[in-house]
Amino acid sequence: MELKDCRRRIDEINSEMERLFLERMEISLDVAAYKQEHHLPTFDPAREREILRRAREKAPAGLAPYVSHLFQQLMEMGRSYQNRSVPCEETLTGQIRAALENTPKLFPTDAVVACQGVEGAYSQIAVNRLFQYPEVVYCPRFEDVFRAVGAGKCRYGVLPIENSSYGSVNEVYDLMKQYRFPIVRGLKLRISHNLLAKRGTAPGDIREIYSHGQAIGQCRAFLAAHPEIKVTPCANTAVAAKMVSESERRDVAAISSRECASLYRLDILSDAISDSDHNYTRFICISKEMEIYPGASRISMMAEMPHRPGSLNALLSKFAMLGLNLTKIESRPILGREFEFKFYFDLEASVYSEEVLALLSELAAGPEPFEFLGSYTEL
Ligand SMILES: C=C(O[C@@H]1C=C(C(=O)O)C=C[C@H]1O)C(=O)O
């Protein structure tokens, strides 16, 4: 067959397939109405298995996987369409609409904000970027930031969530799983690490370096070039700088920010010691109540996936169907369960879109556990 003849035939098939697809979707709605009347769940695994078996039987061996995938997608779309037709409790969309209505138009310039560490911590630098006049409450651990927000002691909490060269801050992801506080703002901050020591210390004198595990992980090449130096993790990069400044020893140094050098009166022995010049950390600003400020263009959520082939793919297809770009996916083990995970998703998506709201309410309706983690702007 000539190319143009092939294409003409493909066009005819496409039209026919579209007509049949639309008819199939409409009939799905009749099935949904029947199921609702008879209190039956949307998902009927036995029926889906039977459909797949029959379809695969007819397919030539090489095409069976394609046929399976096609029918899985068809049934997934059928279920999604059915779920949307069923009047469901609009709790989540109601909450989102209320947040859109009740959140002030401008992000606050001053607030009481919790962050981990001490003066000069990268989290505190992030707080200063997010708020013009913050009252900063320093917490010893990440969890204390969540607690301060939960107890109403601080209106907001600022936490690092991910670094461009060292990856996720797992502890913060796990705390998000536990506390489920919505994210109201995001910030991408360029991080440039320095080696700080007491004034007058010679680089050759250093025998021990303190820093936070994340910062140590972001300076692996520098540390590998100095195997004689002991590396000791501590709570925070600013805590490390403070420890060095207060120490009697003259052979210790800290990996910390430039700000900490002047704050704790330390010398910069080496600057820009990060493995990559493009070293960025993403921070999140959490609050106890959902707040959605104008222009919010990102959505964060978490979901549990059942152990079924294609279950993650099914969720990702729902995002793809709306043309939503996934900017982050992370999975964290669920405590007390064997190799079962909670997935986190960050999407470029707008809660001003009715289609996105419909998707969120479909996911919130279950059957798998799902949590909306806010909609926000990332600076
Ligand atoms: C349409 C139905 O609902 C769901 C969707 C199916 C499909 O698209 O073929 C099959 C089984 C159900 O999980 C049905 O039960 O027939």
Structure, briefly:
By secondary structure, the protein is α/β, with parallel strands linked by helices. It has helices spanning 3-37, 45-58, 64-85, 91-102, 122-130, 142-150, 170-179, 213-218, 220-224, 237-246, 258-263, 311-321, 354-364; strands at 112-116, 135-139, 156-163, 167-168, 183-190, 194-198, 208-211, 230-233, 252-256, 266-270, 280-287, 298-304, 325-333, 341-348, 370-378.
The name CATH uses for the topology of the largest domain is D-Maltodextrin-Binding Protein, domain 2
Helix- and strand-based class?
alpha/beta
Indicate the CATH architecture of the largest domain.
3-Layer(aba) Sandwich
Rounded mean pLDDT is 93
Helix content: 40-55%
Catalogue the ligands.
the ligand C=C(O[C@@H]1C=C(C(=O)O)C=C[C@H]1O)C(=O)O
Tell me the number of helical segments per DSSP (H or I, 4 or more residues long): 13
C-alpha Rg, in Å? 26 Å
Series of H and E elements: HHHHEHEHEEHEEEHHEHEHEEEHEEHE
- By CATH reckoning, the class of the largest domain would read Alpha Beta
CATH superfamily of the largest domain: Periplasmic binding protein-like II
Strand residues, percent: 15-25%
Give the N-terminus to C-terminus distance in angstroms: 55 Å
Low-confidence stretches: none
Quick one: biggest sheet? 10 strands, mixed
| Overall structural domain count | 3
What does this 3D model show about the protein?
The chain folds into three domains: about 5-85, Chorismate mutase (Chorismate Mutase Domain, subunit A); about 90-190 and about 280-379, D-Maltodextrin-Binding Protein, domain 2; about 195-270, Periplasmic binding protein-like II (D-Maltodextrin-Binding Protein, domain 2, 3-Layer(aba) Sandwich), CATH 3.40.190.10. It starts with a helix and ends with a strand. The protein has helices spanning about 5-35, 45-60, 65-85, 90-100, 120-130, 140-150, 170-180, 215-220, 220-225, 235-245, 260-265, 310-320, 355-365, and strands at about 110-115, 135-140, 155-165, 165-170, 185-190, 195-200, 210, 230-235, 250-255, 265-270, 280-285, 300-305, 325-335, 340-350, 370-379. It has about 375 residues and is α/β, with parallel strands linked by helices. The mean pLDDT is about 95. Strands 1, 2, 3, 4, 5, 11, 12, 13, 14 and 15 form a ten-stranded mixed sheet that branches. It has a five-stranded mixed sheet with strand order 8-7-9-6-10. The structure holds the ligand C=C(O[C@@H]1C=C(C(=O)O)C=C[C@H]1O)C(=O)O. Ligand ISJ binds near residues 47, 48, 74, 78 and 79. Ligand ISJ binds next to helix 1, helix 2 and helix 3. It comes from Yanshouia hominis. Its EC number is 4.2.1.51. This is Bifunctional chorismate mutase/prephenate dehydratase.
